[in-house]
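4.2 Preliminary Data

To establish feasibility before requesting continued support, the project team ran the inverse folding procedure on a target of 246 residues. The structure was first converted into the token representation described in Section 3, and no sequence information of any kind was made available to the design step. The complete token record follows.
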């Protein structure tokens, strides 16, 4: 009798264990929607979601203006990888790890893939009247070489003789400033942007004032500032104008 009871108890325990193993686990899910608005020139690029090429208007490689919407479902604990690749070389340009928790950060994804720089930002060429110059600025790699922890800087745009043309209170890493407009005065005379800590006249690096030579074209200028090291010295370049590609 005792052996029978023991056997029955063993069978019941084994049955309970099997039920625990086989019982389905319902994960929470979220619908994901990523609106992509990009631009690449001259490189042809490809988007891949978890390694699978994304088709846009029947093509899996694209250049110039790139717009599409991705719709998929994310499980809690899952990570989906969206990559941007150079279609000719196969090299990865950028990637984004999209999860159940951060999906709202990727409702809209804006980027510019230009020679020598990948810019995660949106840009609209401003309207500038004939005979005027308009400047918008962005500083995506602020702190990369200077080591500053600042998230934005102040900029004062001057003529060579020191006359102030425009002031930018906040030049940040993630979006272009509002446009500043002044009268065009020369095709050849240089203009310089001096960079300071926000709200001060202290150089943003805390040492010597950094002056950035910026080209001045009549109409709109959307300048990307870049920290660089040249001959062991920190410098900032302003020679990429996104307006040339719009």
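Position-by-position output of the design step:
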């Amino acid at each position: 009798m005792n052996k029978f009871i023991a056997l029955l108890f063993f069978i019941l325990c084994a049955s309970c264990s099997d039920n625990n193993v086989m019982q389905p686990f319902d994960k929470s899910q979220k619908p994901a929607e990523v609106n992509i608005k990009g631009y690449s020139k001259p490189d042809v690029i490809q988007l891949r979601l978890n390694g699978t090429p994304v088709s846009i208007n029947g093509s899996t490689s694209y250049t110039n203006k790139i717009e599409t919407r991705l719709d998929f479902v994310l499980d809690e604990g899952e990570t989906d990888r969206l990559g941007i690749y150079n279609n000719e070389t196969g090299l990865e340009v950028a990637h984004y790890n999209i999860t159940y928790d951060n999906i709202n950060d990727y409702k809209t994804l804006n980027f510019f893939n230009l020679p020598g720089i990948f810019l995660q930002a949106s840009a609209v060429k401003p309207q500038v009247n004939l005979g005027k110059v308009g400047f918008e600025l962005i500083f995506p790699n602020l702190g990369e070489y200077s080591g500053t922890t600042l998230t934005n800087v102040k900029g004062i745009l001057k003529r060579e003789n020191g006359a102030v043309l425009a002031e930018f209170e906040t030049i940040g890493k993630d979006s272009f400033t509002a446009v500043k407009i002044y009268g065009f005065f020369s095709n050849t005379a240089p203009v310089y942007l001096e960079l300071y800590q926000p709200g001060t006249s202290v150089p943003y690096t805390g040492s010597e004032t950094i002056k950035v030579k910026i080209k001045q074209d009549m109409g709109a200028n959307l300048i990307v500032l870049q920290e660089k090291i040249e001959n062991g010295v920190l410098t900032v370049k302003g020679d990429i104008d996104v307006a040339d590609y719009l």
